[in-house]
């Protein structure tokens, strides 16, 4: 039985413009829940521009009460944000070649994805992904997809820890020599964030920092 299936695609950044918000935002523990908009329907450019502004400010947007999203529509929405980075692994049941279909059941989607620990999507590439767009077909009853507030984590470090992290680099275990600064400034907000791909043993304190940041 399928207990978890979700699809995702990702894309690179495009320019921001101001628009009019015609949907409602409700603060969530991290980011916002969004009501009053059905992404399966075509949206005016002003609404698309507002969504792009909102995701920059709030980082995570959870769109509730959605009609079914086709693979073509998933890709169409992803293209609001720029050029797509197509998926590396293709599953026979993927609704579109650029949509990464993930499941805990092999016949439904690629298994064991993102299970190595906290990570930035695409951090094994020279330019990690700017956005990931997830479409949850079946929400698992157990096991969470968890997002961490990176700026709060960095800001929550002591001065000594921040000075130490400022000197560190992240090395990809998939591409060997590729490195990114562990801490960098977000290109749009200027806030400090982190390129991390942690399995826990390298910086065991990050889990404690994350718990502290959530309170
Ligand atoms: Fe991921």
From TrEMBL:
Coiled-coil region: none
**Ranges for domain TauD/TfdA-like:** 24-192
Please indicate which superkingdom the organism of origin belongs to. Answer: Eukaryota
GO terms of molecular function? dioxygenase activity; metal ion binding
Name the Pfam families for this protein.
Answer: TauD
Keyword terms of this UniProt record:
Dioxygenase, Iron, Metal-binding, Oxidoreductase
Q: In the UniProt record, does the keyword Iron occur?
A: yes
Q: What family does the entry list?
A: Belongs to the TfdA dioxygenase family.
Q: What is the name of this protein?
A: TauD/TfdA-like domain-containing protein
- Native source species: Strongylocentrotus purpuratus
């Amino acid at each position: 039985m399928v207990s978890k299936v979700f699809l995702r695609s990702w894309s690179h950044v495009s320019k921001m413009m101001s628009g009019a918000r015609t949907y409602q935002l409700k603060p969530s523990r991290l980011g916002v829940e969004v009501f009053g908009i059905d992404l399966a329907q075509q949206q005016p450019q002003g609404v698309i521009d507002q969504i792009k502004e909102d995701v920059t400010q709030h980082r995570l947007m959870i769109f509730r009460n959605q009609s079914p999203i086709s693979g073509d529509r998933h890709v169409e929405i992803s293209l609001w944000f720029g050029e797509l980075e197509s998926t590396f692994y293709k599953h026979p049941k993927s609704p579109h070649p650029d949509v990464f279909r993930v499941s805990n059941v092999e016949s439904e989607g690629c298994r064991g994805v993102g299970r190595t620990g906290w990570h930035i999507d695409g951090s094994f590439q020279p330019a990690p992904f700017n956005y990931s767009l997830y479409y949850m077909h079946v929400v698992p009853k157990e096991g969470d997809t968890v997002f961490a507030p990176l700026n709060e984590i960095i800001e929550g470090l002591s001065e000594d820890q921040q000075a130490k992290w400022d000197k560190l680099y992240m090395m990809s275990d998939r591409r060997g020599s590729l490195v990114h600064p562990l801490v960098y400034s977000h290109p749009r907000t200027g806030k400090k964030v982190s390129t991390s791909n942690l399995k826990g043993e390298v910086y065991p304190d990050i889990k404690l920092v994350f718990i502290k940041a959530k309170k």
